[in-house]
Amino acid sequence: MNKLAVGVAGVGYLGRFHALIYARHPEVELVGVADTNPETVRRVAEEAGCEAFDDPRDLVERVDAVSIVVPTTAHLEVSQPFLEAGRHVLLEKPIAASVAEGRRIVDLAREAGVVLQIGHLERFNAGVMALAERIESPRFIEAHRMSPFVARATDVDVISDLMIHDIDIVLSLIDSEIAHISAAGAAVLTDHLDIANARLEFANGAVANVIASRVSRERMRRIRVFEHHRYQSLDFIEQTLDTAYPREKPGEEWPEIVTERVAIEPVKPLDAEIDAFVRCIRTGEPPLVGGETGLRALEVALQVKEKIEQGR
């Protein structure tokens, strides 16, 4: 089997990890990495054992596929040459800075007949995959994604940076259209929203309450899903899933609440995401998070931001 020739455009904090994972992937030849920062790109290229390029366009004719890990505002500009040349693209989330740009990216991928996978990393968390398999009909979902402040990704708001992960997961779990959105938020340390809360009400009656903060004292990644006669709680960080349900007790008026921990084998989500990208290219199967899925998450995230701005 011939190896896939792959490149990485953008090798800052996250892009570096893409490069290192490709470098050790048995089905991939990491051809090169590109970044506008000469010092960064040469350091990562040396570490990953590949060529360094200052311009992502220099990779287009050298690769079969590319990971694009550049600022969101540059997603269309950087991805377009690859898509027009028929290259498969793993594009970091969110898909774009605007719905119009996201739609253009999706259309380019469809016209070229290539794999477009959006990097909603949490979908490849072993706990999320186990939760998705066990969910039947959610009635209420509560998600918390809290982080201490770090001077990274401060060019975007907390909705695009953090909350969009849980928006995407909620949309994947509730098979219904959104009927109403209400939201609140505030800028605390940056010029963008640093904390936000959104309530998503669905046409089938389900409700999701999603909270994201990047100015919290402690790191938390948790989602709780309530169904009829069952409640499940997932800790993303520990990749643990607990389920609780009522069990009848003979002679007792009320059942007891039984809690069990679901056995999960932890995985490294980014490794799993890249493995899935390579597999989709090889087999032609659709990606778990394709362009349309990424676009829908962006649309809802921007609606949440709009609701907050209307109320400020």
Characterization of this structure:
With 312 residues, the chain is an alpha/beta fold. It has two domains: 4-114, NAD(P)-binding Rossmann-like Domain (Rossmann fold, 3-Layer(aba) Sandwich), CATH 3.40.50; 123-267 and 299-311, Dihydrodipicolinate Reductase, domain 2 (2-Layer Sandwich), CATH 3.30.360.10. It contains eight helices and 14 strands. It has helices at residues 13-24, 38-48, 75-84, 99-112, 126-134, 158-173, 269-283, 291-311, and strands spanning 4-9, 28-34, 51-53, 65-68, 88-92, 116-119, 140-146, 178-186, 195-202, 207-213, 220-227, 230-235, 240-247, 256-262. An eight-stranded mixed beta sheet has the order 8-9-10-7-11-12-13-14. A six-stranded parallel beta sheet has the order 3-2-1-4-5-6, with helices on both faces. Helix 4 packs antiparallel against helix 8 (291-311). It is globular and about 70 Å long.
Number of domains: 2
- What is the H/E order? EHEHEEHEHEHEHEEEEEEEHH
Count helical runs. 8
N-to-C span: 57 Å
The name CATH uses for the topology of the largest domain is Dihydrodipicolinate Reductase, domain 2
| Estimated radius of gyration | 21 Å
Strand order of the largest sheet: 8-9-10-7-11-12-13-14
- Spans of at least 5 consecutive residues whose pLDDT stays below 50 are none
Largest sheet: 8 strands, mixed
- Name the CATH homologous superfamily of the largest domain: Dihydrodipicolinate Reductase, domain 2
Mass-distribution shape = globular
- CATH class type of the largest domain: Alpha Beta
The computed structural class is alpha/beta
Query: What is the CATH-assigned architecture of the largest domain?
Result: 2-Layer Sandwich
How much beta, percentage-wise? 25-35%
